[in-house]
Amino acid sequence: MNLTLRARLAVIWTLVFGLLFGFVSAISYTTLSRWLENDADLRLQELTKGLHGYLHEDGDTVVVQYDVDDDEEATFIHEATRYYQVYDAVSGRPVVESPGLTHLGVNLTPEEVHSFFTSLKPIDMMTADGRLRLSNSEIPGEGRRYLLQVGISLADMDAALSHYRTLMFWRLPLAMLIAVMVAWWLSGFALRPLALVAAAARAIDVRTLAQRVPVRGVSDELEDVARALNDALARLEHSVGEMRQFSAALAHELRTPLTAMRGEMELALRALPANHRLSTLLVSQIEEIDALRSLIDSILTLARAEAGQIPLAFTAIDITALAASLVDQLSSVAEARQIALRGDWQDAVFVEGDPGWIERLLLNLMDNALKFTRPGGEVVVRVRREGSTARIEVRDTGIGMAPDVMAHVFERFYRADPARSSTGSGSGLGLTLVTWIAERHGGRVTVQSEPGTGSTFIVTLPAVTAHEPAVQSAELDDRLPGPEALRGVRS
């Protein structure tokens, strides 16, 4: 069973507490038991020694003589003689027995008398009233020897120890429950900085490598983890930056020779007579060069976007009108592929953004839907306003995507299984660019899809009213080509 670190710490702390609680309880019980036993032994010795001073031999018996008018002596004699008896040490004959012992039926055989007289050690006996402890001592007489037994009841002590054991037994589950709750809270408290580091690390991706996980300014193991992670992020940011610079530089350097190659092929094509066998080959090569240039332009665009080198000019945009215009423009393409392309909207929905980039976002999603929809299918563009959010949906009845594909569909250069890849010649950058556009406009892109039933790409953007003034966020000095020149960038 796989447990979280917090659960493992809680279990370990609870087990340690349980063992410690059990150990302390056992030690305390043993200590208390010994104290009570020692107190009983001391009291029994005091009663035995004190009673010796009041015993006198009277013929064949032993009597207790004391001043009955002395309350202190009377109290002592009453306690000392509650459980006492005297035996003839030679014959084993009982000489004197207190009513308390007679009631309990404590009778010794001559063999037991001889044994106790030989050892003279205290003994414990179980009676109807509980445990009884008897001392054994010798009473010297005139020509006779007697065994004196003085007893005290241990029933109260045993009852106290029994109550203590019961209390520990019922206290253990409650203590363990409290220990579990405290251990769970303490483990969460101890791991809270690590959870914050993990949450901050999850929020960092390839587009936000400049962010760092928070540090607390203390010197402990968790702080070392945070600093090490920040160092790794710094190295990763540097490496990714170099890779972006390299890809941008490489793409830029490739544009010139590709342009020259295309020009030379066009000249060669013009120089060939009509229907020459090389004409088809040259046309195919020119198309491949155009596709490669489109890919290079996409790489350059993404590199500049991720480097923050593309400013946006914000203004109020009617998403409904823009979507209707694009549906009209692509209707002929849809008809040629035997796909029904239609729009679904009612009222005008306004957002604040860069018109060129918002148009590119819609173009990429609509082209993506057409590309993966079979003849006879349908593509629906739906625009709605939901509260303060503009919702754009591009739904198709195409081949759909499996969950493992949806998890990576917005990653750059990601191509799905061969079946999807064979449906078009996309570069794998269109949806990455769509994500960047949506995020730069304060929105997000999600997808819902099932294999064989189609896909729905959902874009949510902050909505505005038509009367809100446009906010110019930046001057677009280095404006990219217009939408009609950007349709080569596809997913």
Structure characterization notes:
- The chain has 491 residues and is an alpha+beta fold.
- The protein folds into 3 domains: 5-159, 2-Layer Sandwich (Beta-Lactamase); 221-306, Orthogonal Bundle (Helix Hairpins), CATH 1.10.287; 315-485, Histidine kinase-like ATPase, C-terminal domain (Heat Shock Protein 90, 2-Layer Sandwich), CATH 3.30.565.10.
- 52% of the residues lie in helices and 18% in strands.
- It has helices at residues 5-52, 71-80, 99-104, 110-119, 155-202, 221-271, 277-306, 319-336, 355-371, 403-406, 418-421, 430-440, and strands spanning 55-58, 61-64, 84-88, 94-97, 123-127, 130-140, 145-153, 315-318, 340-344, 350-353, 378-386, 389-396, 444-450, 454-464.
- The strands form 3 sheets. Strands 8, 9, 10, 11, 12, 13 and 14 form a 7-stranded mixed beta sheet that branches. A 5-stranded antiparallel beta sheet has the order 4-3-7-6-5.
- Strand 3 (84-88) and strand 4 form a beta hairpin.
Keywords, separated by commas or semicolons:
12 helices; single chain; alpha+beta; 7-stranded mixed β-sheet; Beta-Lactamase; 5-stranded antiparallel β-sheet; 3 domains
CATH class of the largest domain: Alpha Beta
Output the structural class.
alpha+beta
**Cα shape:** rod-shaped
Quick one: how many beta strands? 14
Amino-to-carboxy terminus distance: 42 Å
Oligomer: single chain
Determine the strand fraction and express it as a percent band.
15-25%
Helical content stands at 40-55%
Average pLDDT taken over every residue? 83
Tally of helical runs? 12
